[in-house]
Write a structure and sequence with these properties.
This protein has about 375 residues and is mainly beta. A hairpin with a 3-residue loop joins strand 1 and strand 2. The longest helix has 20 residues.
C-alpha cells in the first residue's frame, strides 16, 4: 500500500510540475503545488505497555489556486490538501500515553484533509469549507517544533469532545478581522461531529445533521510588534452544544453515544527572548487551557518550553528545543506529564532529520497503571 501511495505521489508531482513549467514565465502562475512525506522511526526503550519499535508515516499533496494571479479577482484562494497515513501505532501499542507521542499517529487512511476557499476583503477574511482547526486556532508557532500531539492541540481540546483536527477534519466557516497591526479577532463555526471514517472513507461525505450540534471557537490575538523582541498572545474560548456521536465497530454494529454541552478557555504565548544579527534566536512558549472538571476527564492542560535557532555557527538553520506537556486527568490513573527534547536539522530546502526523545511520566492512556516510559523518535521529511 505504501509503495502504491508513494508511486502515485511521484507521478502526480511529475505531471503537475511539467504543466507549471509550460506556463508563460512572464505571468504569475495561479497554481502552487507541494508534495511532502514525513516518517517517524520509533523505539520504546522502557516502560509503558512494552518495549519495541515501529515506523509510521504521512504523505501529503497540497494544491493552491490564486484568483488574482489567474486574472479573475483579488483576494481569492482555493486550497486542497490530500493525505495518506500508514504504519504502526506507538502510543496505542507500545506507550499507552494519553497525549500521544507522535502527532502523525493515525489509522491506515487515504483521504482529503482540507478543501476550502478563502476570500480577503480589506481587513476581513472569510474561509469556507473542509478545515483543520489548528491551522488558525489554538496553535503555537514555537511549540510546532515538537512531535508530541499536545504541543500542537492541547489534550483538553483533542480528547474531551469532537473537534476537527488531524486526521478527521470538518466543514466549517471562519471570519477574521484585523482591527490593527496588533489585534486580530477570529471566529469559527464547525460541524459539531465530523462523520467517522467508517461512514466517510475519504472525508468527502459531509452530512450536516441536527444531532451533530455545532462547535464554536473565538480567539483574540495580540501581536507585540517590538522590533527586537516580538511576540504573539492568543486568548480563546470554545463551546460545543449537546451532540451525538455515531460510530461503527469491527463487527459492523452501529454505536451511538450522547454527550452534554462542553466549553473551555485557553491561553497561548509565543515570545522571543533574544535574537542577534547573525540569526541566533531564543524564544519561549506557553500553552494552557481549562474545561469544567465535572464533565471532562482531562480538565486542564499546561505546557511550555524553549526554542533555540542557530545553536551552532555552522548550522544556523538548525533548531533545538525542550518542552513539557502536562495533562490534568480526572480519573484513578492521575495526571500525565511528558518532557521532550528535539533537534531539527534541515539539509537544503527540501529535506530534514529530527531526533526526538520523550520521557513520559505516568502514561495514562489505558485502564491500568503503567511505568514511566522513555521513547525515541527519528523523524525524517522531504518536500518539493
Amino acid at each position: 500500500m505504501k509503495k502504491i501511495v508513494l508511486s502515485g505521489l511521484i507521478i502526480i508531482t511529475f505531471v503537475i510540475n511539467n504543466l507549471i513549467a509550460q506556463t508563460d514565465s512572464t505571468k504569475n502562475n495561479p497554481f502552487t503545488f507541494e508534495a511532502s512525506y514525513v516518517g517517524d522511526a520509533f523505539y520504546n526503550f522502557y516502560g509503558g505497555i512494552q518495549k519495541g519499535a515501529t515506523f509510521l508515516g504521512m504523505a501529503n499533496i497540497k494544491i493552491g489556486f490564486n484568483t488574482e494571479d489567474a486574472g479573475l479577482w483579488k483576494g481569492g484562494e482555493l486550497f486542497v490538501n490530500a493525505a495518506n497515513t500508514h504504519g504502526g501505532d506507538p502510543s496505542a501499542n507500545y506507550i499507552g500515553d494519553y497525549q500521544v507521542a507522535s502527532n502523525i499517529e493515525a489509522d491506515e487512511l487515504t483521504y482529503v484533509h482540507e478543501l476550502w476557499f478563502k476570500q480577503s476583503l480589506g481587513k476581513s477574511t472569510i474561509i469556507i469549507g473542509l478545515q483543520d482547526l489548528c491551522a488558525e486556532f489554538i496553535s503555537s508557532e514555537y511549540a510546532g517544533l515538537f512531535l508530541n500531539s499536545s504541543c500542537g492541540v492541547h489534550s483538553t481540546v483533542a480528547s474531551n469532545f469532537s473537534v476537527p483536527i488531524f486526521p478527521l477534519t470538518a466543514i466549517g466557516a471562519q471570519f477574521h478581522y484585523n482591527f490593527s497591526s496588533k489585534f486580530t479577532l477570529k471566529v469559527a463555526a464547525f460541524d459539531g461531529v465530523p462523520d467517522d471514517f467508517s461512514f466517510n472513507k475519504y472525508n468527502l461525505n459531509w452530512n450536516l445533521k441536527k444531532e451533530d450540534g455545532y462547535l464554536l471557537f473565538n480567539q483574540l490575538t495580540y501581536h507585540n510588534t517590538n522590533e527586537t523582541k516580538p511576540g504573539t498572545y492568543n486568548l480563546g474560548f470554545y463551546y460545543h452544544n449537546p451532540y451525538t456521536i455515531t460510530t461503527q465497530d469491527e463487527d459492523g454494529q452501529i454505536i451511538s453515544e450522547k454527550y452534554s454541552k462542553n466549553y473551555g478557555i485557553y491561553l497561548i504565548i509565543d515570545q522571543i527572548l533574544y535574537k542577534n544579527n547573525s540569526g541566533k534566536e531564543l524564544a519561549f512558549f506557553l500553552q494552557s487551557s481549562m474545561s469544567p472538571k465535572k464533565i471532562n476527564e482531562n480538565w486542564y492542560f499546561i505546557g511550555g518550553g524553549f526554542h533555540l535557532t542557530g545553536m551552532f555557527s555552522k548550522r544556523m538553520n538548525d533548531v533545538f528545543g525542550v518542552a513539557i506537556a502536562h495533562a490534568g486527568i480526572n480519573n484513578s490513573l492521575g495526571n500525565e506529564t511528558t518532557i521532550e527534547l528535539s533537534y531539527k536539522a534541515p539539509f537544503g530546502d527540501h529535506f530534514f532529520i529530527q531526533p526526538d526523545f520523550q520521557y513520559i511520566i505516568n502514561p495514562a492512556g489505558t485502564e491500568k497503571k503503567l511505568d514511566n516510559a522513555f521513547v525515541g523518535l527519528l523523524r525524517m521529511g522531504f518536500s518539493f
